[in-house]
Amino acid sequence: MAMTEQRVSYTLDSSLETIDNAEEKATIIANELGFPEDEVMQISMAVREGAVNAVLHGNAYSPDKKVNLAFERIGDDLIITIRDQGSGMDLSKIPNPLAPENLLKTSGRGIFLMRSFMDVVEIRPSSTGTELKLIKHVHGSSAGGKEASQ
Amino acid sequence: MTMKVSSRQVDGVTIVDCSGRITLGEGSVILRDTVRDILAKGNKKIVLNLQNVNYIDSSGIGELVSAFTTTKNQGGELKLLNLTKKVNDLLQITKLYTVFDVKDDEAAAVKSFK
Question: pTM to 2 decimals?
Answer without folding.
Answer: 0.89
